[in-house]
Design goal:
Shape: globular
Oligomer: single chain
CATH superfamily of one domain: Ribosomal protein S6/Translation elongation factor EF1B
Low-confidence stretches: none
CATH architecture of one domain: 2-Layer Sandwich
CATH class of one domain: Alpha Beta
């Protein structure tokens, strides 16, 4: 994997519905060259698919991430996925689990997942509702259609939503631009060449520029408020390089902890997301009938 491959993955994180032409322009490649590179990343197990992430503020819900260390099995990840208010579960190569919950009641959500997994989380991060999102019925129809197939071809999306191309394009661009939804890639970790694509969770008050100075190629995927944490997508030449960069990052002033996360599988609770979206649609329909 070279720098252009990594920059393509970064561009996909920003908007995975971009055309090959748009992606290629981001890294000075033709559309066919961008398509071929992404195909190779798929064949090597780095690019494994795509998923839709909706800002939980859209549902008037908070964002809670729980971490479980240990040698958990895929069956455990599936049990966690089926728990109340769970949006997605990441099963790590080291056996750990990261579970994101969109709760109304944090205490109740943690208690429920503790009952399912039989133990309390080893750590957690939390982000409160940060903004009030104005989402129209048209927007909800688009979101509902994208949950199962975020990269659905535009023509198929117009047919599924019943919207005109002009209306669909306008609302879809707005949803992405306003960061109401994120259409992102599912990434594996290891390439056959030995190079590593990995996520890094950095806790503490430190700027992204300071982290990039130490880590090299690093892209901000997300962050949390409590505690302050940055979640980064990074690239390294091999596992020894990952260790070296991680140790250097720990020495940056303001950094409290650095944790490497190599993902084995991402499990998304699409039924749960559908239920929240369709509840919003029903609320709008009931309001309209009054």
């Amino acid at each position: 994997m070279d720098s252009k491959d990594f920059r393509l993955l970064v561009a996909l994180h920003e908007n995975a519905r971009q055309s090959y032409r748009s992606l290629g322009q981001r890294v000075s490649l033709s559309a066919p060259a961008a398509r071929d590179r992404l195909k190779r990343l798929e064949n090597r197990g780095i690019l494994q698919g795509y998923w839709l992430y909706v800002d939980p503020s859209a549902f008037d819900r908070e964002e809670l991430m729980l971490f479980y260390k240990g040698d958990w099995k895929r069956e455990d990840a599936l049990k966690a996925l089926a728990a109340d208010d769970v949006a997605f579960v990441t099963w790590k190569l080291d056996g750990g689990l990261s579970v994101q919950i969109w709760p109304h009641d944090r205490g109740k959500a943690v208690k429920g997942l503790t009952s399912v997994l039989g133990t309390r989380p080893s750590g957690q991060t939390f982000t409160e509702i940060q903004r009030k999102l104005e989402i129209s019925p048209v927007d909800w129809r688009i979101i509902d259609a994208l949950v199962d197939n975020p990269r659905m071809p535009f023509e198929a999306l117009t047919e599924k939503t019943g919207l005109s191309p002009k209306t669909l394009r306008k609302h879809l661009q707005s949803l992405i631009r306003n960061e109401t939804i994120f259409i992102m890639p599912w990434l594996g970790s290891l390439a056959d060449s030995g190079e590593v694509v990995y996520h890094l969770a950095v806790t503490g008050k430190v700027s992204l520029s300071e982290l990039r100075h130490t880590l090299g190629e690093a892209f901000l995927v997300g962050d949390t408020q409590q505690p302050p944490m940055k979640y980064l997508l990074c690239r390294a030449s091999d596992l020894a390089d990952v260790t070296s960069r991680t140790q250097a990052a720990k020495k940056i002033p303001g950094v409290e902890s650095v944790e490497v996360t190599l993902n084995r599988e991402l499990l998304v609770a699409t039924d749960f997301v559908h239920s929240l979206v369709r509840e919003k649609i029903r609320e709008w329909e009931e309001t309209r009938r009054r």
